[in-house]
Design a protein that fits this description.
The chain is mainly alpha-helical and about 200 residues long. Helices cover about 70% and strands about 0% of the residues. The protein is built from nine helices and no strands. Helix 1 packs across helix 2 and helix 5 crosses helix 6.
Length: about 200
């Protein structure tokens, strides 16, 4: 691999590069196990320069986790013109695809972060769920009071997606449509049962 240190980057470009390397490595191992020496070497910079961009190892890990959360959000978002049940269906389908495609990194994102000390504003597990819940609530025109219900539904969808993605591929394909239908209906039932303003 050719070193990238010969290419002059702006501070924003270098930060994006370092976080991008962390995201690629996050697919292979939990974020806490990311070696800053490996990241710096792949970027063609010294470990000391990495600390110019991120004050601590934990700060770097938080940035990688936040970038992973944003990527999940982009990948599962419904089309801008999709509304109501059509938007929910798109989110369910895309969520299943996301988890099946990157199951290990998703599990690491939502379950493998405990050793990272949280500070105010950290997203983490709830950040992923809250983001997806916000997408769904907006697409369905649900009031703010519905967010806790939708958040719970996202946790249910996540659990179903993790169970489904652990099945052999041929079994996943057979049950996919039924699972999408089930999860889409589950949200409608939950929001109907909730006492929403």
């Amino acid at each position: 691999m050719e070193a990238t240190s010969r290419v002059r980057m702006t501070p924003q470009e270098r930060r994006r590069q370092l976080v991008g390397i962390g995201l690629r490595k996050f697919v292979e191992r939990p974020v806490q196990e990311l070696s800053l020496d490996e990241v710096a070497a792949e970027a063609g910079v010294s470990r000391g320069l990495l600390f110019h961009y991120f004050a601590t190892k934990t700060d770097y890990h938080r940035e990688v986790v936040e970038a992973a959360r944003r990527r999940v959000g982009r990948n599962v978002a419904p089309d801008p013109d999709a509304v109501g049940p059509a938007a929910v269906r798109q989110v369910v389908e895309r969520f299943l695809d996301q988890v099946a495609r990157r199951r290990e990194s998703y599990v690491a994102l939502v379950l493998g972060q405990a050793p990272i000390a949280r500070s105010a504003g950290d997203a983490g597990v709830d950040g992923v769920r809250e983001h997806v819940a916000g997408l769904v609530a907006a697409a369905c025109g649900l009031p703010d009071g519905a967010l806790p219900v939708v958040h719970g539904w996202v946790a249910y969808l996540e659990d179903r997606a993790l169970q489904w993605s652990a099945l052999p591929e041929d079994e996943r394909e057979v049950g996919r449509t039924a699972l999408v239908d089930h999860c889409t209906r589950a949200l409608a039932l939950l929001t109907d049962l909730a006492d929403l303003p």
